[in-house]
Amino acid sequence: MNVLVISPQPVFQPRGTPLSVYYRTLITAELDVDVDLLTYGEGADIDIPRVNIIRIPRFRLLGNVKVGPSLLKLFLDFWLFLKTIQLLLTRKYDFVHAHEEAVFFCVLLKPIFRFRYVYDMHSSLPQQLESFEFTRSRFIIRIFKSLEERALRSADMVITICQDLYDYAESILDGKVAHAMIENSMLDPVRLAPSEQTSVVEKVAPQLPGSGRRVVYAGTLEPYQGIDLLLEAFVGVATSTDDVSLLIAGGKPEQVALYRAKAESLGIGPRCHFLGTISRAAAANLNEQANVLVSPRITGGNTPLKIYEQLASGIPLVATDIHSHTQVLNRDVAFLVRPEPDSFRDGLLLALADQSEARLKVENALKLYAEKYSREIYVSKMTRVLESMSACVA
Asked: Can you tell me the distance from the alpha carbon of 7 to that of 22, in angstroms, rounded to the nearest whole number?
């Protein structure tokens, strides 16, 4: 089969949706499908056999694509739309695999080019507009909600990434469209093209600072990730212990500077170490050096990708008990705490002190990952998606 994958994201960068796109594409290609991956000009090239990367212009003067909706993304999506038309005019595809808002291209173009499409739904776009405060206009949000519902009902297959999103989509689909939940649980190292191996995306983690026990966070530093909460909670840990350091990997330079200043203002600067952006492989290595891993997220409906890595890490995890986490986590596999500084502090201190409880949770976490989120299970779900689409186009 020949498939056009459309990703309105900078592929590849080591963050949520680009990682999801990478693994979907990797397994699709492994299952004997030839892929044209259409994406933004920004991002490192990946090296996957049977995958041909097609990019729109980079537009460097406009800056980098940030997480969430933006005017820059809207501009880039227009170019992505034009390139999609060109590809559909000049190449033959068995179906289109549209990520995120690229599905709107499919809604418009499907009646003209008569193709089948998979809608890979990473989030609800109307909810994203509100969550990232892109607009407060109820009129605009209603328009996007209507478009999203049409995109779902027009799809030949829908993929969602967590239970919350699955339930939302199913309330619209009502069982009338094939629908699979495929969690972002793959942990394979990302294969970058040889020319990208020394890029900022794949730089090796620096020599680990600090000594003694380490609490580690690796991820983006967006406000919803709860870094403020983590720093405020760590004040109590630093007061109660003298051998625990906090290591935070990820974030743009301006975000790192902001949180470093906050750590200094809280009096924990010497115990907090900010590593900036590192590769996924380097982050995995960092996690291996941790005594405790954390996910202090304070809002959100989708399960963070790092939760699956943390489950499989063999390291105790402290996480907030918000729905974003509890779709996957429970008290048998993690130290779940309220999204409040005192509660998070207590969870950290317990995870560091109670080795017996920590070992039990780690054993349960490894078992849960193996039973529900392993590579084999991911591949089996993707196989069923491709079999369904193959039957549609036969």
From this structure: 10
Tally of domains in the chain: 2
Q: Which two tokens stand for residue 179?
A: 């629908």
Question: What is the rounded distance in angstroms from the CA atom of residue 64 to the CA atom of residue 86?
Answer: 25
Rounded-to-integer distance, Cα 87 and Cα 312, Å:
40
Measured distance CA(80)–CA(221) in Å, rounded: 28
pTM for this prediction = 0.87
Closest CA to 169 of 97, 101, 121: 121
pLDDT surpassing 80 at residue 393 = no
Q: Give the HSE-up count for residue 90: Cα atoms under 13 Å, Cβ half-sphere.
A: 7
Which residues pair with residue 281 across a beta bridge? none
pLDDT over 70 (residue 394): no
Q: Give Cβ neighbours of residue 242 (< 8 Å, ≥ 6 apart).
A: none
C-alpha span between 34 and 49 (Å, rounded)? 9
Give the CA dihedral 247, 361, 222, 259, nearest 10 degrees.
-30
At 351, list the tokens: 């995870």
Looking from the CA of 116 toward its CB, the CA atoms found within 13 Å total: 20
Residues 36 and 149 in one domain: yes
Within this chain, do residues 310 and 365 fall inside the same structural domain, yes or no?
yes
Rounded to whole angstroms, how far apart are CA atoms 294 and 344?
Answer: 10
pLDDT for res 201: 45
Q: How far is CA 189 from CA 197, 210, 284, 364, 388, in A?
A: 12, 27, 9, 24, 28
DSSP track, 339-359: SSHHHHHHHHHHHHH-HHHHH
Tokens standing for residue 394: 């036969």
Boundaries of domain holding 91: 2-185+374-393
Taking only the tens place, the pLDDT of each residue in 235-268 is 999 999 999 999 999 999 999 999 999 999 999 9
- In a domain, residue 196? The reply is no
Ranges of beta strands (E only) in the chain are 2-7, 34-39, 51-55, 95-99, 117-121, 157-160, 179-181, 213-218, 244-249, 272-276, 292-295, 317-320, 335-337
**Is residue 40 assigned to a domain?**
yes
Q: How far apart are CA 120 and CA 25, in angstroms?
A: 12
CA nearest neighbour of 42 among 6, 8, 10? 10
